């Protein structure tokens, strides 16, 4: 390494929001490269609500790569972390910090190590896509630190190798993860469908039913589904391709009734496929089911959908209201039927996107 003191530390901090799928990814065709069996579509949440903050530091004094998640050291030996680190390292460029007198040549990166500290401001491994925000932030912050010049599509293909859903968190707005055809995954990347301003009357509200860590991780859950569910291939081959086309259309034309119908159906089919797994996987609980009934009843009584619901691999509800007025009514209803800290176990509400709480005054 060029004539510099060995005491320097170079750091980058980044923040990445989580994303919630409205057409779900569930099932891989390649476990190592993380290649999915169907396309998926998600909405990225406002970073001021649910996000990961990651600081990556490099110093000649660090003897090996280390990572702390929510202040606890975790092992980086897993293939996913190693794959992301290797892919990013191989694309590193020269870095120069004149103020600190630091010069790192492209080839020096192979001999340097990282210390990484990451913090999720929302429950980890509870079905709110912490792996999505987490790996997207890891890849993004390392890419910044190492002056990687790839575009977001290429970075999304690296984040995908950390956690599939992570590839969609590198963009705001509505995002599609194209499953791709290539065996090596070169074309399995995320693209932005529309940006965050396109449909800005939508309000996303998250009802945290339980912040406990789920019993079956998404990774093992979807593996068991692919191995045992007779329904999952029908979903991936027959149902999702049509839904993806209809969902893109609904998003582009801001057609809320179509959007809500597709979002709710896809969430329900994803949980049906979990139930079709042997042994069955139950991600939702009684409170989740009661929230679904409550929204379905409301939508029916209005004659046209006011709210869409979707549940990832966990019991927590993601509710998408068509506008701020509906969101205010929704929050009122939730607080009435599921008062926080009651037996219903609905512990808190996180209002995402255009925050109705912040703007209420
Ligand atoms: P979730 O529904 O929260 O995405 P998953 O089972 O898909 O749950 O993934 C949880 C795993 O993702 C964690 O056990 C951890 O390995 C990884 N993860 C979560 N947050 C981060 C983070 N900030 N940085 C790196 N990895 C993370
Ligand atoms: C239900 O991306 O967490 O949230 O690729 O194994 O890390 P791995 O799984 P992950 O699965 C997400 C599943 C989902 C649906 C979705 O986000 O599309
Ligand atoms: Co996940």
Automatic annotation (TrEMBL):
Enzyme Commission designation: 4.1.1.33
Alphabetically ordered keywords of this record: ATP-binding, Isoprene biosynthesis, Lipid biosynthesis, Lipid metabolism, Lyase, Nucleotide-binding, Peroxisome, Steroid biosynthesis, Steroid metabolism, Sterol biosynthesis, Sterol metabolism
Single GO MF descriptor: diphosphomevalonate decarboxylase activity
One Gene Ontology cellular component annotation held by this UniProt entry: peroxisome
InterPro entries recorded: GHMP_kinase_C_sf, Mev_decarb, Mev_diP_decarb, MVD-like_N, Mvd1_C, Ribosomal_Su5_D2-typ_SF, Ribsml_uS5_D2-typ_fold_subgr
SUPFAM superfamilies documented for this protein: GHMP Kinase, C-terminal domain, Ribosomal protein S5 domain 2-like
Residue span(s) of domain Diphosphomevalonate decarboxylase-like N-terminal: 17-190
Transmembrane segments: none
Compartments, record wording: Peroxisome
Main location class: other
Highest taxon of the lineage: Eukaryota
Domain Mvd1 C-terminal: start-end pairs: 204-361
Family the entry assigns: Belongs to the diphosphomevalonate decarboxylase family.
Protein name in the entry: Diphosphomevalonate decarboxylase
Organism of origin: Cinchona calisaya
């Amino acid at each position: 390494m060029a004539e510099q003191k060995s005491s320097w530390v170079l750091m980058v901090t980044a923040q990445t929001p989580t994303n919630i799928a409205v057409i779900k990814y569930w099932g891989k065709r390649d476990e190592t490269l993380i290649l999915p069996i169907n396309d998926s579509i998600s909405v990225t949440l406002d970073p001021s609500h649910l996000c990961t903050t990651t600081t990556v530091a490099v110093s000649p004094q660090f003897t090996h790569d280390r990572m702390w998640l929510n202040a606890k050291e975790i092992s980086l030996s897993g293939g996913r972390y190693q794959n992301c680190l290797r892919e990013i390292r191989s694309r590193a460029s020269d870095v120069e910090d004149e103020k600190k007198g630091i010069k790192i040549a492209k080839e020096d990166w192979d001999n340097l190590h990282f210390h990484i500290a990451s913090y999720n401001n929302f429950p980890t491994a509870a079905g709110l896509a912490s792996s999505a925000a987490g790996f997207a932030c890891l890849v993004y912050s390392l890419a910044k630190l190492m002056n990687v010049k790839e575009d977001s599509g290429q970075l999304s293909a690296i984040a995908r190798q950390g956690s599939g859903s992570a590839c969609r968190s590198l963009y705001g707005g509505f995002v599609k993860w194209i499953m791709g055809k290539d065996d090596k995954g070169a074309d399995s990347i995320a693209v932005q469908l529309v940006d965050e301003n396109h449909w800005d009357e939508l309000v996303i509200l998250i009802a945290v039913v339980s912040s406990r860590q789920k019993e079956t991780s998404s990774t093992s859950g979807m593996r068991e589904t692919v191995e045992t569910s007779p329904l999952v291939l029908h979903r991936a081959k027959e149902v999702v391709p049509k839904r993806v086309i209809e969902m893109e259309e609904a998003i582009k034309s801001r057609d809320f009734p179509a959007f809500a119908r597709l979002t709710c159906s896809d969430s329900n089919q994803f949980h049906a496929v979990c139930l079709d797994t042997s042994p069955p996987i139950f991600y939702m609980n009684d409170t989740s089911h009661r929230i679904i009934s409550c929204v379905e009843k409301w939508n029916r009584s209005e004659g046209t959908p006011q709210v869409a619901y979707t549940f990832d691999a966990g019991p927590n509800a993601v509710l998408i209201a068509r506008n701020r007025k509906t969101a205010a009514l929704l929050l009122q209803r939730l607080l009435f039927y599921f008062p926080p800290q009651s037996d219903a176990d609905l512990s808190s509400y996180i209002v995402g996107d255009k925050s109705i709480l912040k703007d209420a005054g």
